[in-house]
Amino acid sequence: MPRYKLTVEYDGTPFSGWQRQTSRPSVQQALEEAIERFCGEAVTTQAAGRTDAGVHGLGRWCILTSARHGTRSAFARR
């Protein structure tokens, strides 16, 4: 399964922090939903830490693993 490192930048104002939460919006949730809309594949991202509510991100990175086999997935083609 291909793995991808994503470097992201975001305005954290509307979020409860990085990590997915059941009752409040998070950066992780927004990113995973955007990836699913983009490539049609549900993914879970993994990051090296968390942030507090309202914290912005610059150069933050995370990893995602694609269930699609081969060297070129929907991520690489776009």
Structure, explained:
The protein is of the alpha+beta class. The chain has a single domain (3-68), classed as Alpha-Beta Plaits (2-Layer Sandwich). It is built from two helices and three strands, in the order βαββα. It has helices at 27-39, 74-77; strands spanning 3-10, 45-47, 57-65. It is globular. The model has no long low-confidence stretch (mean pLDDT 86).
**Secondary-structure element pattern, one letter each:** EHEEH
Main beta sheet: 3 strands, antiparallel
What is the class in the CATH system?
Alpha Beta
What is the CATH architecture descriptor? 2-Layer Sandwich
Under CATH, the topology can be stated as Alpha-Beta Plaits
Strands ordered across the widest β-sheet: 1-3-2
How would you summarize the topology of this molecule?
Blueprint: E1 3-10, H1 27-39, E2 45-47, E3 57-65, H2 74-77
Antiparallel strand pairs: 1-3, 2-3
Compact overview of the structure:
The protein is built from 2 helices and 3 strands; from the N terminus they run βαββα.
Short key terms for the protein model shown above:
78 residues, alpha+beta, Alpha-Beta Plaits, 26% strand
